[in-house]
TrEMBL record:
One of its GO terms (biological process) is heme catabolic process. Residues 128-238 form the Biliverdin reductase catalytic domain. Residues 4-120 form the Gfo/Idh/MocA-like oxidoreductase N-terminal domain. The lineage of its organism: Eukaryota, Metazoa, Chordata, Craniata, Vertebrata. The gene is LOC120020327. It comes from Salvelinus namaycush (Lake trout). InterPro entries: Biliverdin_Rdtase_cat (IPR015249), Gfo/Idh/MocA-like_OxRdtase_N (IPR000683), Gfo/Idh/MocA_Oxidoreductases (IPR051450), NAD(P)-bd_dom_sf (IPR036291). One of its GO terms (molecular function) is biliverdin reductase [NAD(P)H] activity. It comes from the Eukaryota. This is Biliverdin reductase A-like isoform X2.
Length: 295
């Protein structure tokens, strides 16, 4: 069994505890058992699970795994601390706020011989799986993905990082990308943010990615993918799967702990995660350069 601790009791932390308390029957997730949670607040028991200290979690031999579910800005410090202590880490996306940090963390995990896993539930939804099937074999001419939501919570970082799930979709659908331009509009007083990134595929086809955050904006994705044969403007209807997306991710992470995930899959996943973070870095850099020139 892999004793686990959950760090950060927000939406994601709550779900991690819930799923470990009732894992998918006969799945690898049954090998996880939650031993406690860590929070900067003093909290009551959560779903019957007790709060423990960081020191306790780091030193206890029966705790082998940490789930890092805090705001993004605290991910690096938490991941590093648990990896240094020889614990496996599952972190909610994005792993880090720079590409370089993610490379360092991955190297550290390798040096310590432990698993470092970045959750990507957006790839596990029924509608995305259907979209991927629909896109397969088609030649993209031009694409557009506009996400709205908001407002962006403090500690979640630059929109290219907090919105890494959308970028991951684009990379998973269309392969390696490059950034050709990026800009950012911001009205801090009204908590408004709009990031626009221009990307191109290896075949030099343009993709526009917009993240727009403001109070009152609905959480929604608008897509327009024009192919040589057709245009997709809506996510395909797909029946919700019986196994929830966080549970699917928990099973995948547990399979990694048990050494059940093939090396080439692990390698491909690491390449995708690092590629997305590298793109996010570049988008942030170009956006901030543009903002500096405007002022
Ligand atoms: P949340 O706002 O619900 O929770 C954030 C956590 O940060 C809280 O548990 C809290 O412990 C901690 N925190 C923040 N500020 C704090 C403060 N001032 N004092 C004490 N604690 C504080 O966020 P969330 O949705 O659970 O997101 C957590 C992570 O999970 C993020 O990295 C996010 O990108 C990732 N994620 C979330 C979802 C989701 O569905 N909620 C999906 C995918 C990834």
């Amino acid at each position: 069994m892999f004793g686990s601790v959950v760090v950060g009791i927000g939406t994601a932390g709550f779900v991690r505890i819930r799923d470990m308390l009732a894992p998918l029957p006969s799945s690898a997730a049954e090998k996880l058992s939650v031993k406690g949670f860590i929070s900067r607040r003093i909290l009551e028991e959560q779903q019957g699970v007790k709060q423990i200290t960081v020191e306790d979690a780091l030193s206890r031999d029966d705790i082998k795994v940490a789930f890092v579910c805090t705001e993004n800005a605290a991910h690096e410090e938490n991941i590093r601390m648990f990896l240094e202590a020889g614990k496996h880490v599952c972190v909610e996306y994005p792993m880090a706020m720079t590409h370089k940090t993610a490379v360092d963390l991955w190297d550290l995990a390798q040096e310590k011989g432990v698993v470092l896993h970045e959750e990507h539930i957006e790839l596990l939804t029924a509608d995305f799986k259907q979209l991927k099937k629909d896109v397969a074999g088609k030649r993209l001419e031009e694409g557009f993905l506009h996400f709205t939501g908001g407002p962006l919570k403090t500690g979640f970082g630059f929109p290219a990082f907090s919105g890494i799930a959308r970028l991951t979709w684009l990379v998973d659908l269309f392969g390696e990308l490059s950034v050709t331009a990026a800009s950012m509009e911001e009205d801090q007083e009204n908590k408004y943010m709009k990031m626009t990134a221009q990307l191109i595929t290896k075949e030099q086809k343009p993709l526009t990615w917009i993240e727009e955050w403001a109070p009152g904006l609905p959480r929604a994705k608008d897509i327009n993918f024009r192919f040589d044969s057709c245009t997709i403007t809506q996510l395909p209807p797909a029946t919700r799967e019986p196994v929830g997306i966080f549970m699917q991710d928990l099973v995948l992470f547990s399979q990694k702990l048990l050494g059940q995930v093939p090396r080439d899959q692990l390698h491909a996943e690491r390449c995708r995660v690092l590629h997305c973070l590298e793109l996010a870095d570049r988008i942030q850099q170009l956006s901030l350069q543009g903002s500096a020139q405007d002022t």
